[in-house]
Specification:
By secondary structure, this protein is mostly helical. It is built from three helices and no strands. The radius of gyration is 18 Å and the shape is elongated. The mean pLDDT is 85.
């Protein structure tokens, strides 16, 4: 790969990538729940999310901002 091509890739990454700040895993699960409620037209009684162990660990260990110190899942 030429240096110019490499630098073009680096520049694209610098423009497109932004750090994930906060707690993305619980927000992703919350978004899926909100979308389910929208599609169903009512709040679901229960949601079963199949997630990797890492996602579960991260969701259990993070406090969701502006939630009154609530954790992602219990």
């Amino acid at each position: 790969m030429s240096k110019e091509t490499y630098q073009n890739y680096v520049n694209i990454l610098k423009e497109e990538l932004v750090p994930a700040l906060g707690c993305t895993e619980p927000i992703a699960i919350a978004f899926a729940a909100a979308k389910a409620a929208q599609v169903l037209g009512k709040k679901p009684e229960r949601i079963v999310a199949e997630c990797s162990g890492n996602i579960v660990k991260n969701v259990k260990g993070v406090i969701v901002p502006n939630s009154g110190n609530l954790f992602g899942i219990s």
